[in-house]
Design brief:
The chain has 876 residues and is of the alpha/beta class. The chain has 28 helices and 34 strands. The chain has a seven-stranded mixed sheet, with helices on both faces. A six-stranded mixed barrel has the order 21-25-22-24-23-26. A six-stranded antiparallel sheet has the order 28-29-27-32-31-30. Residues 1-5 have low confidence and may be disordered. The structure holds ligand MGD (2 copies), iron/sulfur cluster (SF4) and molybdenum atom. Residues 104-106, 131, 134-135, 288, 292, 325-326, 392-396, 399, 419-422, 425, 437, 439-440, 470, 582-583, 590-591, 593, 656, 668-669, 672, 685 line the site of one ligand MGD.
Length: 876
Amino acid sequence: MKDQGVSEICSTCPYCGVGCGVRLLADGQGGLTVRGDPEHPANFGKLCSKGSALGETVGLEGRLLSPRVHGREANWDEALDLVAQRFRETIEQHGPESVGFYVSGQLLTEDYYVANKLMKGYVGAANIDTNSRLCMASSVAGHRRAFGTDTVPGTYEDLEEADLIVLVGSNLAWCHPVLYQRILAARKARGTKLVVIDPRRTASCDGADMHLALKAGTDAALFNGLLCAIHEAGALDKEFLATVQGFNEALIAASSDRDTVTGLSEAQLAAFYKLWIGTGKVVTVYSQGVNQSTSGSDKVNAILNCHLATGRIGTPGCGPFSITGQPNAMGGREVGGLANMLACHLDIENADHRAAVHEFWDSPRMADAPGLKAVDLFRAAGDGRIKALWIIHTNPAVTMPDADAVTKAIADCDFVVVSDITAATDTARLAHVLLPASAWAEKEGTVTNSDRTISRQRAALPAPGVARPDWEILAEVGRRMGWREAFDYACPAEIFREYAALSGLAGTLGRDFDISAKAELSDSAYMAMAPFRWPASATRNGGRFFADGRFYHPDGKARMLPIRYRPPASEPCTEFPFRLNTGRIRDQWHTMTRTARSPRLAAHLAEPFLEIHPEDARRLGIAPADLVRLENPQGKAILRARITDAVAPGDVFAPMHWTGETAPSARIDALVAANTDPVSGQPESKASTTAVARFDAAWYGYAVSATEITPTADYWARACTRAGWRAELAAAAQPEDWEAEARALFGLPDAPCQTVIDARRGVARIAFHDGDRLIAALFAGPEPVALKRDFLATLPGTEAPDALTGQPPADRPDPGPLVCSCFNVGLNTIVAAIETQGLLSVEQIGAALEAGTNCGSCRPELASILAAAQAKVAAE
Ligand SMILES: Nc1nc2c(c(=O)[nH]1)N[C@H]1C(S)=C(S)[C@@H](COP(=O)(O)OP(=O)(O)OC[C@H]3O[C@@H](n4cnc5c(=O)[nH]c(N)nc54)[C@H](O)[C@@H]3O)O[C@H]1N2
Ligand SMILES: Nc1nc2c(c(=O)[nH]1)N[C@H]1C(S)=C(S)[C@@H](COP(=O)(O)OP(=O)(O)OC[C@H]3O[C@@H](n4cnc5c(=O)[nH]c(N)nc54)[C@H](O)[C@@H]3O)O[C@H]1N2
Ligand code: SF4
Ligand SMILES: [Mo]
């Protein structure tokens, strides 16, 4: 859709499930300006740090620009014919169950629709699963058990109309920043109370009234305790309970659980229960701390039980709110991306549903049973049951639990196809055939965000090389496998119409996902389609669900489930005493293939780390900036220690983002056990166990360079900077020749260099120049090297005559680690301004330095920097 006068294009951010609207302006030379869409109902013009930096990530370096077959460049016909032929032959010889697709909640709905149709209707098996299995599957299972349908009842407005918001296992401040800012704004206006339930203190706690640091995995016991307290307080909604089955059984089960397993004090529990029960308008938001658990579905139902028992569902400011992670996680659930669902909320186990879809597609076959879920799909690839696997828009060699085993399974599989936009990912490296996809801002389609709003993604840039949209690649293969008519789509609008028509059929079968009002949309109306919330049918238009007491089980009633707390699958023991929690950081997206290309996003946290409690660190002899080694039966890792009481003693936390490309020893999923929830099949990504020890490095190094650094040390982590690259290094043995080490590191066999080397003490500083410009420098020593890192990172490409001192000149103070990525403001600058200008609030910091005044993603951190500075003053 073009804005009048200006050639801005309205689209949707490709990152999180908030689904912010963006306005795109191409400069005609491959560049793109991105701003928030003031009219989009998800964000009304706001963007977070990742959304604001989108323009920095659309460059073509690293892009996969042409198909590759066995590592060599190929044309589309050759690559597609090979894929179609190998899949067809495998099916002929070994049956439809011998092939699989592993897809992604980042695919557009149209891509997903074609993939699902190809597998379930034409291959005739259901071995298509998605990374949403690692993300939303427990919420899907919980919703289906309680409501008879996988539906989020509420809308984003509820976050503004609630009087209490409870974040359970959600670091909303970093993972859904625009929603967190919407909550903080409402809080300012109406005093909304905010409670965070998370074993770890996170940025989301900075704005909260209460942080319940429960013991990992005990959420079900906590919400069982709440259900009992609701009952005891006489706070049940008896009228609403007439539309709910299973209350007594749920209460009996809850009463036999003990909320003391949460490790929270009686006073904390009582205060939380009182607040929840005493506040009419409550929204309970939950995310991966709930879903990624072997009791994830039960945690979800324990939460839903409390909302059903009080009738707090589907009315303004009320309801459980499973917040989706990926931009189209919700769309994927709607369109049947999971191995145990059909499209449009139709059930694969239901013979009538299967028959209806079969007839609608007029397809030769139809899957008649659920397929393999992600963890089992890769196990089957590893043991030869799956002989041809197509991985689309996801990087499982990094993000699946037991990632080393998954990497081996992909490597061992007879035939692996990967569709990606990035040439070198840990998964792409294992493919027999690589297919170049068009990226965000180069293609057309739709996505559904966390509150059921369907928005268009639109193209503003031409696709580079011969890249093609994912739906088109899938349709090409479908046609080449012999199903010409079924996959003869000319454009995404055609796919969308077919999907909308199928949803109408689902509507007649009594399902809620019905967008049949869009089934006759013209191509131009599809191109201009404004965001809308489903349902969109002749009888229903948007709105909330379930306040009317109408649910989607055959009897029309909801279900409360009897839930009993179960601990995580692996309990800490003598050998593996630590509980390993994992998750996200503010400025990186998953395996960093896009966000790591933005220097300002990379500057926020430039290195993988392990949060560990000060007592544990002391006991293990781990000092600040030391490296730590993790080891468990699945794998090993080396990360930087970050000693903090944000985690409980015995717990450690590591981010999920680093990969073979960015920090090979920090692929944390190598240590995550592949234990899954028995109902949802979702892996327990947040509760493995591990041993932790200090990593005894013989030397530590820091390197900066104008060109890409490719280290080989035992530990390394690299990030891009405005001036080139930076890297942290460490190894168990000293190099024999420091200068040779540095030359290999930078790929500079002949460049002139300055050196300060004391081989006996193990100290080396080496700088390479090209004329009078510094091109690379290495600083190494036997201890973690104390340097002005952020300053040094700016030096490549400049004269920097004193680079080897490692110190900035007096007139150029070191800004310190980046806090505000929009205005490039570092920690030291902020602390200095607080101290010298006597700043007293986040607003005053903004007025003085601009920090926090654009996207707001760093406001929680500014608040904690301010609090720390004030505490320091108070102590002085
Ligand atoms: N910056 C950024 N934002 C993102 C993403 C990203 O990669 N980067 N990814 C997107 C995606 S796909 C997703 S799914 C979402 C995820 O969004 P979130 O779920 O908010 O993010 P996580 O950091 O994975 O986990 C949330 C919290 O769960 C806590 N937790 C661990 N165990 C437990 C437990 O037993 N109980 C409770 N109550 N809490 C526990 C962790 O300490 C962590 O702080 O983020 C989306 N947004
Ligand atoms: N330990 C641990 N592991 C986790 C989690 C956790 O909390 N802890 N969280 C899990 C969750 S919730 C999620 S959602 C997953 C996410 O994990 P993944 O989906 O595996 O991670 P991404 O980095 O998002 O992978 C997306 C890939 O698609 C490529 N790509 C980008 N755009 C396009 C496109 O338009 N078309 C195609 N074909 N490819 C494209 C990118 O280059 C990249 O390789 O990780 C899971 N793994
Ligand atoms: S909150 Fe940030 S990452 Fe999520 S959709 Fe909005 S701009 Fe994108
Ligand atoms: Mo996710």
